[in-house]
Amino acid sequence: MNPPNNIPEVNYKLPDYYKLSCVGLLLVPCFILTFVCPVLDFEKIALFSETNGELKYNPVVEYSYLLLTVIAIITSIFGCTCLCVGNKRYKNFLWCWLLVPTLYTLFTANEMGDIPFDCPSNYSYTSITIKEACEIRIANLICMWAYFACFIPLSMTMYSLLNGNR
Questions:
Q1: Residue 119 has pLDDT above 70, yes or no
Q2: For a Cys staple, 130 with which of 70, 82, 98, 125, CB 3.0–4.6 Å?
Q3: In Å, what is the CA distance from 111 to each residue of 10, 55, 57, 85?
Q4: Residues 47 and 129 sit within 8 Å (Cβ to Cβ)
Q5: What residue ranges are annotated as transmembrane (predicted)?
């Protein structure tokens, strides 16, 4: 038996107001993290410098990351991210952005030496500055990955809105 011809066609396209709601929900944490990440990195550099060489950071990695976060602030303020995401090269942009937290995490993985990654309170730090540097470092890594986790779905949703896709 054939189905009746009067069955309405199902449209799987998500309405734009749902997409706009997603953009709004993702935009707030992404915007906040855009400013928090460079502040944490700057503070990390300052604290590592205060340890008299006990903690060493890679200046090329740190200042490159700091520069990229400042560029993210500038593009956020001027709304260039919205315009760039609509470009056909958007997928390449997202893959490149994945490299930033991945490479930064790899290059900074051993900079705390023997200090555990989670900066436990029962560890015997040589100074309060070392403990603070450890805590700032982990906060920096968490915020960097949280920014990435917010930025990817935000940019995909914005791309979808600009191109009229699902």
A1: yes
A2: 125
A3: 55, 7, 6, 34
A4: yes
A5: 20-43, 63-85, 92-109, 138-162
